[in-house]
Amino acid sequence: MEALNPSEQRELQARMERKTMKDFLTTYSNIVQRCFEDCISDFSSKSLTSREEGCLMRCVDKQLKTGERLAQRFQEENANQMAKAGQGGFPGR
C-alpha cells in the first residue's frame, strides 16, 4: 500500500471497507434465511412460539460458531502454508 499516493490509499481503504460490509451483510442474510427456513413453520400468529424461538437461538448460535471455527482453521492453515513456504517447502504439498 506504500506504493500508492494518499488519495489512492483512501480509495483502496474505502473499497476494502465496502467489501467487508457487503460480505458481512451477505453472511447475515444467509444466516437469517437458513434459520428462518429451518425454524419457522407456524404463520398463524405474529409472535414466535417457544419452539421456534429456541430453534432460532440454536440455529444462529450454531451458524456463528461454525463461521468462527472456519475462520480459525483458515488462519491455522494459512500460517502452516506460510511456514512451509518460509522453509523452502511448497504450499499445498
Record keyword descriptors for this entry.
mainly alpha, Helix Hairpins, 2 helices, 93 residues
Q: Output the CATH class name.
A: Mainly Alpha
Terminal Cα span: 30 Å
Report the total helices: 2
CATH-scheme architecture: Orthogonal Bundle
Main sheet? none
Task: Output the CATH topology.
Answer: Helix Hairpins
- Stretches with pLDDT under 50, minimum 5 residues: none
Q: Based on DSSP secondary structure assignment, what is the total number of beta strands?
A: 0
The share of residues in helices is over 70%
Pattern of helices and strands? HH
- Beta content comes to under 5%
Q: Structural class of the helices, strands and pairings? A: mainly alpha
Count of the separate structural domains: 1
**Looking at this structure, what is the CATH superfamily?**
Mitochondrial import inner membrane translocase subunit tim13 like domains
Rg is: 21 Å
Average residue pLDDT: 90
Any idea what the shape is? flat
Pfam families: zf-Tim10_DDP
Organism: Aulographum hederae CBS 113979
Keywords: Chaperone, Disulfide bond, Membrane, Metal-binding, Mitochondrion, Mitochondrion inner membrane, Protein transport, Translocation, Transport, Zinc
Membrane topology: Peripheral membrane protein
